[in-house]
Amino acid sequence: MNCLNQTCNSTDGKCSECIDSWSGDFCDAEEQSSEGGDSGGGALIPAIVGAVVAVVVITAVIVGILCWRRRSGAKHESRDGSMIEPTVETGNTYSNPALDTGKPERPSRPQSRQSKPRSVIFAKAQEVDDGEESEEDKESESSENPYTNILTDDTSVPVEDLKAYLHQHSTDSHFKDEFMAIPMDLGQDQNHGVAARNSKKNRYKNIIPYDTNRVLLEVDEKRKLADYINASYVKGYNDCETFIASQGPNDAILNDFVRMLWEQNTGRVVMLTHLVELGKIKCTMYWPEDGEKTFGEIKMHLLTTQVFSEYTIRHLRLCKGDESPRDVTQFHFTAWPDKSVPENPWGLVDFQQRVMAEPGHGRLLVHCSAGVGRTGTFIALCNLLKEAEATGKMDFRSTLHKLRQDRMHMIQTVAQYTFLHKAALVGHMTSGTNIRVKDISAKFQSLEGGASTDKSARTYQQEFDDLAAVCDEDTIMPHKQSDGAEHVYGNEKILANKGKDRLSNILPNNTYRPILATEVKNEDDYINAVLVPNIKRNSQDILTQLPLPTTVTDFWRLVTQFKVGLVVAFDVDCRDTDESIGDFLPESDNNPLKNGRFEISSTTVSENSAFKEMSLSVQKKGIKGPSTSNGQHDLTCLLCKNSTLDPGSILEIINKIKDCRSSETCRTVYMCRNGAEHCGLVCIQSILLDRLEVDQCLTVPLVVGAIKAIRPQVIPTVPEFDVEDEVGNDDDDDDDDDDDDDDDDDDDDEDDDD
Q: Which EC numbers does the record give (predicted)?
């Protein structure tokens, strides 16, 4: 930097004075004799920017690209660390060739009349209410900003290199450097937002929309309705104002928020926060819990609610006077933890694909609490996937820069920015893999390698290779632990748990492990099991290994403490020959099993070629302690027969599982010898068929990926991946038969009506 005293304007990067031999607004033109060179064209990129670009350009060898359209092999990679970091901003030196030449790439916005000291901007980054959940709104794309030097170098990443790119920078500061290179606040006017009359309308005093692209409400002086709301238009990949990024409404703007939905003719709303998090109100409820509710002149009716494990979809109808009603679909993502990022990207990608598949009028409105962190991350994901579809590349740094041109603080933390890369990888890989019911048979034949006119058609082997590689837990969700054993416990307890694992390479990640309550002195809380979602509830069901002789008590602790209503067990036929399988069931109906504090009795209900159904009663002996629930626990157990584990048998087992579940809150344990292979297959297939029934759509990669992110060893081979589609296809055929029967019934009904 050639500014005198090494100082420059913190807002536009210009120097007030230059050191000797240098001139220009940015002191980037060397005063020396030259033959007619353009002074603007000689701008120098600062060393720090050049270093960042250099790291981006060197994108590592293609180890195994995980996209669904282009396949290459991949190897497992080492675990890297993921940290949630506070929003930090440092001063940056700007060299701006576009301003020097007077030829900006796009029409620039009006310049701010008030420059903002960098110290103030830094303070704002820290003010966002306890880090503002570190994940707020996510908006995307373009709008011209004077600091075009940030975009002078190509930082885009080809999609086929994306996985290698993530792995290359998993242990360095590259993502943090990129994140901090873009100012949180680009210094544009915010006069309306900071006006005293609007102060109560801002949920956070430091998150204010820019004047140039704020959403203006219709003014009604008689009703004292002003035009201000804390919301911004945000551009999509194609530079159209595709989104509205908004704060979650507070009490002061509740009616204004609903008025914005009406006036902007919004057909889809994405909500990325809970109403209350960590005891703090993050958003005021702007829809009726049931029936209808009036907001000013607008009545809102709740038509339907669909609850899924990681999101809820509400269909709303807005009515105002004599005008035609307008329908709005609200997509509420409920799996974004407080002050963190989702544990893995699969749920958010599933959610994003659901949102984008819904036809809707008007701009897509996205909000969290402040409307910047989570909101910015979501919008960036949408834009990056559009960019990948159009160009085969993703430019994360450019996307971040453009977002912050439209709204300050978009993507608030390094953790969010890092997570965005993982979500974009999964999003691109799974793009176009959802199969409608009517297309299942054709897709099934294509995946089997049958005749196809589509040159991009992939086989099961290709899809499985891509899925297996991208599900490498080290790539998708790096953890702080450097040793796989640390997934079980901290180093101080590894030895204590060593005898509780059948296989040393199938260990539970602490993030998903059910923690057992200790009921006696010196009892441990560990069991080799993981919590997995079902279609309705997150962390609802359990995958675990068949008990070892030393873990039978732990298994029944799991059953009773987690209120398990159904156990689906595989590999039980091996008990006579495999000494590593403990006796966890009675030998016969008349011979109860006694194990420590538990006594288990059984009654055989039915048996066929696929499974044996048993009714179990678990009696726990009295144990002192407030955490203990004594008494009787009843449940159902299905002992599945592996020799007939074909698609037809799996379908029969799954139908029985549905019958045995007493309610949506009934927790199911899936278990097999290694706690992954057979039990994981049926668990996944159960979710797939539930989704098929609800959505009329088969979502194999998303469902398989979500479970493999928790238990990477599920679906270890191509044949099992093949079975997922086969069962879906068989179920589709059954549905077709049912439809035919329904048609016949309809005909009979019509005859009766006649």
A: 3.1.3.48
Q: Which residue range forms the structural domain that includes residue 313?
A: 50-429
| pLDDT reported for residue 433 | 84
Hey, which residues does 220 pair with through a beta bridge? Answer: 225
Q: Write the single-letter amino acid at 195.
A: A
Q: What is the pLDDT of residue 148?
A: 43
How many structural domains does the chain have? 3
Name 368's Cβ contacts closer than 8 Å, sequence gap at least 6. Answer: 133, 135, 136, 137, 248, 271, 272, 273, 282, 283, 374, 375
692 CA to centre of own chain: 21
- Give which of 89, 114, 120, 101 is closest to 39, Cα–Cα: 101
The amino acid occupying position 693 is E
Give just the sign of the alpha carbon dihedral 430, 431, 437, 441: negative
Cα separation, 46 vs 342, in Å, equals 35
Is 455 in the same domain as 563?
no
- Tokens 């996937």 identify what position? 385
Q: Would you say 211 and 188 are in contact if contact means Cβ atoms under 8 Å apart? A: yes
Q: Please check whether residue 288 is in contact with residue 254, taking contact to mean a CB–CB distance below 8 angstroms.
A: no
Residues with Cβ < 8 Å from 24, sequence gap 6 or more?
Answer: 18, 39, 100
Please indicate, yes or no, whether residues 447 and 420 belong to a single structural domain of this protein: no
CATH of the domain at 624: 3.90.190.10
Do 160 and 240 belong to one domain? Answer: yes
Residue in 223, 222, 215 with CA at minimum distance from that of residue 249: 215
Do residues 513 and 532 make contact, with C-beta atoms less than 8 angstroms apart?
no
Euclidean distance between the first and the last CA atom of the chain, given in angstroms as a whole number: 89
- Give the pLDDT score at 208: 98
Q: 76: which 2 tokens?
A: 């497992």
CA distance 343 to 169: 19
DSSP assignment, residue 235? -
Q: How far apart are CA 672 and CA 495, in angstroms?
A: 24
Q: What is the pLDDT of residue 633?
A: 93
Burial of 751 (0-12, 13-18, 19+ CB in 10 A): exposed
CB 669 within 8 A of CB 565: no
Residues (pLDDT < 70) of the chain are: 1-152, 443-464, 466-467, 471-495, 622-630, 643-644, 662, 717-754
Assigned domain for 29 exists: no
Classify residue 377 by burial, with Cβ atoms within 10 Å: 0-12, 13-18, 19+. buried
Tokens 């609200």: give the residue: 330
